[in-house]
Here is the input.
Amino acid sequence: MAGFSDAIQPYQDLGGAISFPQRATIEEAGQTFLLGVPVQINATDGGVQIWDGTTLTAGIAGFSNQPGQNLGTTGAGAPVGFSPILGPGSVIGNYAPPGDSNQPLAVITPPMTPLSDGTTIYNVAAPTTIFIGTIGSSSGTPAAVATTNQQVGVAYGLTKDAGNNFWYVDTNKTGGSAAVRIVGLYPLDPVGTVGGHVLFVVLPAVAQIFA
Amino acid sequence: MPGNSVMSRNQFPPALAPGLRHTFVHWLDLKEHMPQYVHYMNEMTSDDAYEIDWELSGTAPMPLLTEGSAPATDGLISGGTKKVVHLEYGLLSEVTRQLVDDDKYHLFARMPESHARSGMFAREAACCSLFNLGGTSITTTNGATLFNTAQPLMGGVSATSIAPNVSTIINSAGTYPNRPTPDADLTMTSLQQAITMIALQPDDRGIPVHVKPKWLIHTVQQRRNVRELLGSPGVPGSSNNELNWVIAENLQGMELNYLTSPNGWGLIAEKEGHQLKFYERKPLAAATDDDFKTQVLLFRSNQRFGVVATSWRGTYFSYGA
Here is the structure.
């Protein structure tokens, strides 16, 4: 089944002129998350990883602003103090030099591959940032649901869309399972749009960091 | 953070009243020295997000051609690449409008000059990190650390078999060191070993490079030691009447304030003999603006550059015993 969700992005900031707060933090090893999904900071080593979907007390650090880089080790290549990037500068597309059998660590990095400095940038789940995402329900067969004016002001959970690995605001998760609160409907989606977008903030108790 | 994020009048009462004979301002009165990194880094410019350097071997030595037969064939070997991503450095200082207006000595309006000093530190420290971190986490095109006791050669075992007179230098066949085993303090003996090691350096196919060290990199703590080693007419510390052979090497000391290992020292060739590079992506630039609502003055300085060691050639470093 093709997924119905899409990337969660910052939409508006309550501070007016203040831009969306972002952070760049070392990325946990082996992460393959998409751009625009909830992430959390690993308690053991401080690396940013995909949100586990269940931790609701200080559980969501923000929403990824770049795809996971599948690092070999947490923070691989991150500069320390005043240093260059301590790695090949990219972790995608590198290949061993053909015919060079004597330098096992050498790699050729093709141009146009994404930069990698061992960190990942994410939009901080600050209570002042309004995010936009798709609304759906995990009840029964997960599917998109129609937007309604009554959804505004209600707290819902977030669920990963098994169809495409993006996340959606899940009307099937309420009460103790809630992670976000809808503050408005996306004005370009007519009310009643199935799979329309809603504007939401992360609940303060769920936000792992605020700035 | 020890610095004041938003500077206001109550933090700097002396600036508000006349009568000070002199204000000793660090960024103005501590005389700047010439930048150090320009003496050992190959400086280049860049217009891109990153640069990629590639290393390519030459052909092997030309073998004997027997009568009536075709020459042996040999080709080039592709080494790895080194991608240098230019990193941004920036600093912001905020000063209340009232402090700038009431500052009798016009010091706070000169924040960009202080930023210039801060920006220079970033350049110096980043360049010197090649030495500071070259034994642990800074790698070159061959994937090994910049300073290593066994730099893998593209030609492998053949390269060290071909390279003349290296059997007592190398630690393993197919590799060549540019770091002592174990690390040693700077003495006449260790310096002799370093000069020998760098002078016998072959290329990746085993052909001697004929590289000659020019600079003896050292810390302030090693100044006396370096002067004695390079300047004594006789061998320093020896009761014998031996000439100080190092004088004829024409080595010059290069004291770097940004080395972090007090006993660290090394040798590098002239700039064309090594591949330590500084890519200037965006020179240090200052900008000033004020916040419309608060009138707080904002001084911002940015620069972007990349530092890389493409190859270990022409370098040698020891982190001290």
